[in-house]
Amino acid sequence: RGKEATYGRESAEAMESIDALVQLLVSQFGASKAPEAEALQRRSLTWRLARAGSEADDASFHRGVVQARSALAQSLRMQGKLDVALEEFELAYLACRDSPELGGQEGVNTFAAATNYAAVLQELNRAEESLELLKGAVEGLTKVLGPDHPNTKGAM
Questions:
Q1: What's residue 58's pLDDT?
Q2: pTM, entire model
């Protein structure tokens, strides 16, 4: 609430604080705080998407939208809302894959988004789709980061 008081409730600084709080809630408290994280992240994502017209060419804007979608999807996944989480992870993946400023088809962001998307596909018993995505992500991460990088190992 400090950044809201200083910069305003609808400021970029307030949204960055919300994003950081969501990451903390999800990483430290898991499913017990996932509903709160979901509500906060929806607010941040809505704010970011409302500015799409004026900032659509800004790479940091696109990165912020993808990060907000991914964090929202993670909180939905923790609550067992897999169909909705899948939609958000898919949108994050497609944004990374289709945006050169986010790495494009061979970018680390794309491979990371693919692993998140593949994990939910697997949970929804869509193993064939999941395996295809995961295989591409592991190959890409191995090529870009190397086989011993924590992100590559995490995707395996």
A1: 60
A2: 0.86
